[in-house]
Amino acid sequence: MDASIPTKPADAHIDGPVRAHVVNLSFYYGEKQALFDVSFPIHDRKATALIGPSGCGKSTLLRALNRMHDLYPGNRYEGEVILYPEQINIVSPEVDPMLVRLKIGMVFQKPNPFPKPIYDNVAAGLWVRGIRKKSIVDERVEQALKQAALWDEVKDRLRTSAYGLSGGQQQRLCIARALAPDPEMLLLDEPTSALDPIATARIEELMAELAPSVTIVIVTHNMQQAARISSYTAFMHIGCMVEFDKTTTIFTTPKESRTQDYITGRFG
Amino acid sequence: MSTETVNPVTGKIDEQALVTKANRQDLRFAIIGFVVLVVVMATLFALVLDFMIDGVPRISGEFLTNYPSRRPEQAGILSAWVGTTLVMSATAMLAIPIGVAAGVYLEEYAPKNWLTDIIEINVTNLAGVPSIIYGLLALGLFVQIFRLGQTILVAGMTLALLILPIIIVATREALRSIPLETREAAFGLGADKWQAVWMYLLPAGRPGILTGVIVGMSRAIGETAPIITIGALTFIAFLPPAPLQDTFPFVNFDWLNSPYTVMPIQMFNWISRPQAGFHVAAAATGVILLSMTLLMNGLAIYIRYRIRRSSR
Ligand SMILES: Nc1ncnc2c1ncn2[C@@H]1O[C@H](COP(=O)(O)OP(=O)(O)OP(=O)(O)O)[C@@H](O)[C@H]1O
Ligand SMILES: [Mg+2]
Fold first, then answer.
1. Nearest CB neighbour to A164, from listed B112, B183, B312
2. Residue range A21-25: mean pLDDT, rounded
3. To pair with B123 at 20 to 30 A between CA atoms, which of B50, B106, B161, B182?
4. Which of A223-237, B174-188, B297-311 has the least mean pLDDT?
5. Of the bound ligands, which one is closest to the alpha carbon of residue A234?
């Protein structure tokens, strides 16, 4: 375990090494505030699930973590997201969004492969990092496709367009693309919402396999999914972090009645 | 219209009446559309057919390999089609890189403020400026101030100016129509702007940009007014130096400084002669010009088809 990653046993919610600390994060779409003083830890090499009713700001929070909002004018962050072990505030205007995105990978709700061959899609993240040596790229592409449980299905058609894959395969391709450069953290925004139950099950398996080696933050609407794949769960409501705890605690003995109501399906 | 779809007494909706009404509406529109289409196509077809009948029998190997002549039956378009080909090459070499780069700059790099808004409006308007104005500008700037002479280079520069707005607008439209997801995928991987634009956004926008390039080139190939203004010659009995040579460095750009004529000018010249034989030659030139345009469009469709297939 990396010694430079801090452990803060003093805080009740933290019981292991932390990869990032979100501290009093607020976010504004122009004038409209979408996140209010959100604070929670992101544990190292564990999956953290973000749950909450539609429109509560889950995607907004996730996209803040790799500065996706900087692509559009007028957006503003307040507060801090400290990334360890570098100890930099990744939402600070002084930190270049590109630097953050090089460290933190993202998988979107809708599969979004490039209109290019499968191989080129997975290699894209390596190429933008200047890794061009064929032997290395070949090896990392194969490894990432294997991690994403897609290798066997595509190994004979790596040169064909990614648009020829099914929706579920495309989403696993996007996961492989995000994994290939070996990111410090992987963000997933409802990665299974466009998929059928079988494809969903495969991606959930994949998450379970990845969790011991990659730090994951996943947004999901599916309570069972959150319970199955995450170690920690954050419940959000109208832009605020209502409760953060171990997934088992959130799903069995939540402290807040709003959390209880949501996970039992009384609202949301 | 007159069919009642809601029963006035019971207030019940008559679904069958709704369907009938919708079908009748579609049929009416389809008929109008078809009639307009037939009228337009027939007119166009008649025009093309008319000068095909005049011109096609005149086309022969000699017509393509002879220089213009005082005797109509010996006149050919060698200098004209070579001139057109070279002028179009010069135009493409200037207009495509500059136009695409300008489009990318305006869409992806330029700050969004009143200045860029004004530039945007002006670029769009420039596409509608009559071509003779470009000819006058080029005459004043390239020929009289820069003293570049009446050369292929000047013709290429003039026509490039003329079609730049078309290519810039097409590039911007193409970039703008790329789904946000593709954009976010590229930046989400940690790509910098240069990588995102040149590796992922421009390739995704290629069909749209190509369409703009072809529309522009098809416009340029038939332009007469600006070329006359900057002083293309109407009678040329020699060819510009060849662009390729067999000694190092194998390419040669002297042709850019050569006088030239182009096919529309040759046509214009022949039509203004009294002899009927020249009118036939003009029609034949028109057929060849039209075929070149069709060929260019065909090529574009083929390339677009290939791009689509490879990206599917
Ligand atoms: N580009 C935007 N500009 C302005 N407001 C936005 C923008 N995107 C989202 N919002 C608002 O921010 C709030 C949070 O939206 P967000 O997309 O983060 O919700 P979510 O929790 O991901 O919802 P869902 O579960 O439906 O995906 C919503 O009120 C939404 O209307
Ligand atoms: Mg969302």
1. B312
2. 93
3. B182
4. B297-311
5. 1
Mean pLDDT highest for which of A53-57, B205-209, B298-302?
A53-57
- A-chain residue closest to B309, CA distance: A161
Query: How close is the Cα of A95 to the center of ligand 1, in Å?
Result: 24
Q: Are residues B255 and B144 in the same domain?
A: yes
**Residues of chain A above pLDDT 90, percent:** 62
Decide if B186 and A114 are in contact by the 8 Å CB cutoff: yes
ipTM above 0.90 for this complex: no
Q: Are residues B188 and B234 in the same domain?
A: yes
pTM confidence score: 0.80
* Closest C-alpha to ligand 1, atom 4: A29
Query: Do B146 and B275 fall within a single domain?
Result: yes
**Residue B251 and residue B136 share a domain:** yes
A12 inside domain: no
Q: Is the pLDDT score of B221 beyond 60? A: yes
Q: How far does the CA of residue A188 sit from the closest CA of chain B (Å)? A: 12
The domain total for chain A is 1
pLDDT at residue A7 above 60? no
Indicate if the pLDDT at residue B141 is higher than 60.
yes
The reply to whether A8 falls in a domain is no
B87 and B16 part of one domain: no
- Residue B219 contacts residue B163 (beta carbons within 8 Å): yes
Domain that holds residue A96: 18-263
Q: B198 at the A interface (CB within 8 A)?
A: no
Nearest residue, CB atoms, B185 vs list A102, A114, A161: A114
Structural domain count of chain B: 2
Give me the percent of chain B exceeding a pLDDT of 70.
95
Asked if A163 and B200 come within 8 Å (Cβ–Cβ), the reply is no
